[in-house]
């Protein structure tokens, strides 16, 4: 049986999937994060090709037509996000296992087109997710916070069943979630180079 190359780590906004991904890559250096394409503006300290590939909406739509963005979603904020195929191919050709932080659309694309293991990260409760959001951004507008929590509830209730595994990232116990995911990686026959 050949080794797996694709790992999806998804979850509601604020649950810690990006932090978990960074920690796994630190410990397993033959894993690399797939850098997503987006039509939103860069935030302070975000770097092209490291955090995202930034495109205008017109450029993003042209990349779809060119076949460089095979799956994408237009979010509630009216911004596009999707898989950037040149980044994917470059990392695969360099021998990396890929970790993609996608939503359900991306997860389905990878499950249908690649030999993929998918993990959904859960908070221990919606209240703990609210605390994470407030700790990260104490000035978040109440309506925006409420919308995010409501959507998180929707994802947990309606989308989490689609994933192969569910891992709880308990607030303040990040190490436990990382350990659980590394165990899944070993069980799922990924080729691993430990650091």
Concise summary:
The chain is an alpha/beta fold and 195 residues long. 42% of the residues lie in helices and 17% in strands.
Describe the structure in your own words.
There is one protein chain. The protein is an alpha/beta fold. It folds into 2 domains: 1-34 and 97-195, P-loop containing nucleotide triphosphate hydrolases (Rossmann fold); 35-82, Guanylate Kinase phosphate binding domain (2-Layer Sandwich), CATH 3.30.63.10. The protein contains 7 helices and 9 strands; from the N terminus they run βαβββαββαβαβααβα. The chain has helices at 17-27, 57-65, 85-93, 104-113, 126-136, 142-158, 174-187, and strands at 6-10, 31-33, 37-38, 53-54, 72-74, 80-82, 97-100, 116-122, 165-168. The chain is globular and about 45 Å long. The relative contact order is 0.23. The model has no long low-confidence stretch (mean pLDDT 91).
What layout of secondary structure does this protein have?
Layout: E1 6-10, H1 17-27, E2 31-33, E3 37-38, E4 53-54, H2 57-65, E5 72-74, E6 80-82, H3 85-93, E7 97-100, H4 104-113, E8 116-122, H5 126-136, H6 142-158, E9 165-168, H7 174-187
Parallel strand pairs: 1-7, 1-8, 2-7, 3-4, 8-9
Antiparallel strand pairs: 3-6, 5-6
Helix pairs in contact: 5-6
């Amino acid at each position: 049986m050949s080794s797996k190359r694709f790992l999806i780590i998804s979850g509601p906004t604020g649950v810690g999937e990006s932090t978990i991904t960074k920690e796994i890559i630190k410990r397993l250096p033959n894993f690399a994060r797939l850098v997503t394409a987006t039509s939103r503006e860069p935030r302070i300290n975000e770097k092209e090709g490291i955090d995202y590939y930034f495109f205008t909406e017109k450029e993003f739509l042209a990349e779809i037509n060119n076949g460089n963005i095979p799956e994408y979603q237009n979010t509630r904020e009216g911004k596009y996000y999707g898989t950037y195929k040149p980044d994917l191919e470059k990392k695969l050709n360099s021998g990396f296992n890929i970790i993609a932080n996608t939503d359900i659309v991306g997860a389905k694309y990878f499950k249908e087109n690649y030999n993929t293991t998918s993990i959904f990260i859960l908070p221990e409760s919606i209240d703990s997710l609210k605390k994470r959001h407030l700790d990260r951004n104490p000035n978040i507008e109440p309506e925006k916070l409420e919308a995010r929590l409501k959507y998180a509830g929707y994802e947990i209730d309606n989308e989490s069943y689609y994933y192969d595994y569910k891992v709880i990232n308990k607030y303040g116990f990040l190490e436990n979630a990382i350990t659980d995911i590394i165990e899944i990686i070993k069980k799922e026959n990924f080729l691993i180079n430990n650091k």
